[in-house]
Amino acid sequence: MITLALSKGRIFDDSLPLLRAAGVEVLDDPEKSRKLILATSRPDLRVVMVRASDVPTYVQHGGADLGVAGLDVLLEHAAAEGGDGLYRPLDLRIARCRMSVAAREDFDYAAAVRQGARIRVATKYTHCARQHFAAKGVHVDLIKLYGSMELAPLTGLADAIVDLVSTGSTLKANQLLEVERIMDISARLVVNPAALKLNREAMRGLIDAFEAAVGGSGA
Ligand code: PRT
Ligand code: MG
User: Which residue from 11, 75, 192, 213 lies 20 to 30 Å from 110 (Cα-Cα)?
Assistant: First the structure.
């Protein structure tokens, strides 16, 4: 049995067409069912539903053989673990967005950077943020948050945030401006190397089918 870890919401929704193109139908809808283990049309493949940030943990420790997770989640996980030993064979080109720095309209980010000021930055992505600002030689005090980053500059908790942006409407609704783009983000297929070794034929077949589905979708 091959176990694929997915998370509810955009990762699951955007993975479905790829699975379908790979000839796999998921037989339950996680939005309607409380089941955490979903059968598929392939008797040797099941899907487990976990929190987005738990996908790399499941795959790393063998609770799942492979999984789909955002590059943001993978980079933060790998940094926290000092490497995770996962194969990342494929950019699935789904759940795309960018990681950016945003600030209040009345905060002159460029001037603060130029003057070498210490900038207070709130974010869920502390490892990516630390690396980005260190590479630019910008002095920051990072404040770790788990959600609603947009609130931090509005309440005076921070001068700026590092968050994911797709349409930009969340920033706009909170009168924040995107002042710097850090990196493009998309979801990746991650694979447990031991699982690949043990079950090479079936796993390879599935990875190849994913690859063909990504290429074929023209995304
Ligand atoms: O919600 P939960 O805590 O369980 O986990 P999660 O928030 O990590 O999961 P989920 O399903 O929200 O996101 C899964 C993955 O989708 C992320 O890890 C990203 O790789 C990817 N993704 C793509 C996004 C977005 N686009 C996105 N827009 N993840 C989050 N957002 C959020 C963003 O943080 C901000 O709050 O959407 C808001 C901005 O969207 P716009 O369209 O208003 O710019
Ligand atoms: Mg979310």
Answer: 75
